[in-house]
Amino acid sequence: MLVLFSFRENGVKGIRQVILASVLGMAGNILYAYGRELSPFFAYELANGVYAAASAAVLAGYRQLFKRPAHVRTLAATVAGLTAAIGYFHYVYNSFPARTAVASLYQVGIAVAIGYTLLQARNEWRRPYYPKLFILAMCSMIAVGHTFRVLHQFTVENAPASLLEPSGWNVLMLSAGAFALPVLAFGALLIAHRRIVLLAEYAANHDYLTGAWSRPAFFDIGNREMSRASRTGKSMALLLVDLDNFKPVNDTHGHAAGDRVLTEFVHEVLQELRSIDSLCLRRPSS
Description:
By secondary structure, this protein is mainly alpha-helical. The protein has two domains: 1-205, no CATH class; 215-272, no CATH class. The chain has ten helices and no strands. The chain is elongated. The two termini are 47 Å apart.
């Protein structure tokens, strides 16, 4: 939790939702744990509703991490619908298997939605791939586990009649449920960390205005290309371009106009370069 809070001001979207999911998940687990001491409303409707809200929040976080709309209203409606369904199968038609099916199938839907979000963004994946593969594996395990839970509840003759019964199966299910959200939060943390590293690398190696490679990056790229040319015996080319009369543009029209000239110049040059070419920019001293 403390690690998640340390990421909240990093500019990576989605982390705040994951933090909210972790807080709600802890609250939901506490309500489950003290279900015997609380009224049925707290143990059933509120606990399931809070945990569903936590799952919805982590899905919203992943959606924003991958620059997809979070659909907050839709997710809120699903949480309200789940809570209402739990209440129906508690007060109107009291059925623990039905409550189990509603809660578990909701978690299956959340896991599938997170996995689908990752697959939607697969063209944006960058190395290393292990954070995405880890999350996909965890989502698959969560979906399969909850599906098996529903099947077990409806097919096994001596299945528990309450989540609070002291049985090995309930301990297993509660433990798995308690670890699901932290695992997904950890996956989001891996992605956020990678995003921060990429942002820092980009800021260090690119001109902040035009996006061209910076002067320090020029030497790294140059050394790499010289080593490649020496190793392969192939030639390389270095083209130096100077913008004539650029200083008078700044002096006459202001630095904002000069920035526009540089930006447009870089844009036009990049349109003509091949993917294997590099454009580096050295800003004038004044």
